[in-house]
Specification:
By secondary structure, the chain is α+β, with helices and mostly antiparallel strands. 20% of the residues lie in helices and 29% in strands. It is built from 7 helices and 21 strands.
Length: 465
């Protein structure tokens, strides 16, 4: 073969590139490529989880930049109140409703009740953030029969904090009473209590959560316990644990016995829930930590309110503040017993059933005027005395049926801070600026990007003819 023919034959064949010491091309093992891809994807997923964990930890420790708005129950049904009873919209026990109350207004809602059930209708009013308020601004609620007779009255006002915050009042009808004892239609009346020249003439949002309690299956004592321990107990000991509060009754964070710490910006309202069983006695305090700067005096700087499982107010206390740590102590309440409902004082007859008792902490927005808008450390102490025992046997079901009980899951969640309905994971993701769907998309997107880059590098290494 001539030299020219040999050259054409050699040019027609693919020759390995060996210039400058490079090795001839060898196709990568597909198993090795998959292994590297899976390892990289695992690293991406681990990095995402670490970032979310860091966000969660930082959220628990970091001070909120501004107070959170009130968290209405997810799925709350919108309902409008009416100026008269003839067109009043019906409410059902076990449902949560969202409505609105105009300034100087009054609204009616309808409930159809059985003769033997005790009904509780808590109404939480939420003034708009930044609204000027007076101490006497608030709401008044009552439950009335067809003849207009009032079964009960209750009111809730802003108080000495002079700071817009959610306030809750409970209307109720006790079964077995001569007045309002029959079955049929009843009407919830919600009225604004206006402080006059406070400038609070704006509509307030409402959350209404009616529930019913079944009657007892057997007769029992109809007088409250004669004596109970009203002495101030020794405070719990141990290291304070961090637990951020919820922004409403529906998102209240569970607490057990111990010392709990969080931070709150001026104007913030924090919601916690403490499982209290039959026979147990709850004690609680709230300390407002030292101000980092500023000086002066703020009355009603911190307000601590205890509500029962039906959201009825049990006790309340508040404190003035001069910049140094100060503690508000709830007055003692008796152990939870069914017969407490026959007591006259409100702080005794409201401790009438087991369940989640709510601690609501409000830090006055007026603190920002004297001590700056930075957050303040709030420390809660919770103590439970007494020995849990079985409660009364009911003749039917309360609605919802788990409202007046304490489960083993409640006790566990009170220690860990987690619960099936408090949306902890969603709050953590939201605090980091991303939702669950976005987080998954980010993870999948990163995984896909890694895969494409790996394939691009492999393709780039392949020779062309």
């Amino acid at each position: 073969m001539s030299m020219r023919g040999r050259g054409r034959a050699e040019r027609g064949r693919l020759r390995p590139v060996t210039a400058r010491g490079r090795r001839p091309y060898a196709a990568p093992d597909p198993r090795t490529r998959r292994h590297r891809l899976h390892r990289t994807a695992a690293l991406v997923a681990a990095s995402l989880l670490c970032a979310l964990s860091a966000t969660r930890a930082g959220t628990a420790e970091a001070a909120p930049a501004a107070p959170q708005p009130y968290a209405f129950a997810p799925g709350a049904e919108s309902v409008s109140g009416e100026p008269g009873t003839s067109t009043a919209r019906p409410l059902k026990a076990g449902h949560v409703y969202r409505s609105a109350l105009p300034a100087h207004g009054k609204l009616y809602y309808r409930l159809d009740l059985a003769a033997k059930d005790t009904a509780y209708v808590p109404v939480t009013a939420v003034p708009p953030t930044g609204t000027p308020v007076a101490s006497t601004d608030g709401i008044r609620v009552s439950l009335r029969d067809l003849d207009g007779n009032a079964c009960s009255y209750a009111s809730a006002t802003i108080g000495g904090a002079l700071s817009p915050r959610p306030v809750t009042a409970l209307a109720q009808r006790d079964s077995g009473r001569t007045l309002c004892g029959g079955a049929g239609a009843y009407y919830l009346l919600v009225e604004r209590v206006d402080g006059g020249d406070s400038g609070s003439g704006r509509t307030w949002d409402l959350e209404i959560a009616p529930v019913t309690e079944a009657r007892r299956a057997t007769t029992g004592p109809t007088t409250p316990p004669a004596t109970w321990d009203s002495a101030t107990p020794r405070p719990p000991v141990g290291t304070a644990r961090t637990r951020a509060g919820g922004a409403g009754f529906a998102t209240a964070r569970l607490l057990g016995e111990g010392i709990w710490r969080t931070r709150a910006a001026p104007g913030a309202t924090l919601f916690y829930a403490v499982p209290v069983d039959w026979g147990q006695q709850l004690h609680a305090t709230a300390e407002l930590g030292a101000a980092p700067n500023g000086n002066g005096y703020v009355g009603g700087a911190l307000d601590l309110t205890l509500h029962n499982p039906a959201r009825g107010r049990v006790e309340n206390t508040s404190l003035g503040f001069t910049g140094t740590p100060h503690t508000a102590v709830l007055p003692p309440v008796p152990p939870v017993e069914y017969a407490n409902r026959y007591a006259v004082p409100d702080d005794e007859n409201t401790v009438r059933f087991a369940g989640r008792y709510y601690l609501v902490v409000h830090v006055s927005s007026r603190l920002a005027d004297s001590f700056g808008s930075g957050s303040f450390e709030v420390t809660l102490t919770v103590r439970l005395d007494g020995h849990p025992h079985d409660g009364p046997r009911y003749a039917g079901k309360s609605v919802p049926d788990d409202l007046f009980t304490v489960s083993s899951q409640d006790r566990q969640d009170a220690v860990t801070g987690e619960s099936g309905d408090d949306g902890t994971t969603m709050r953590v993701l939201a605090a980091g600026g991303i939702g669950t769907g976005t987080a998954l998309l980010l993870g999948l997107g990163a995984w896909t990007l890694v895969a494409r880059r790996a394939q691009t590098r492999t393709s780039a290494q392949k020779p062309t003819a």
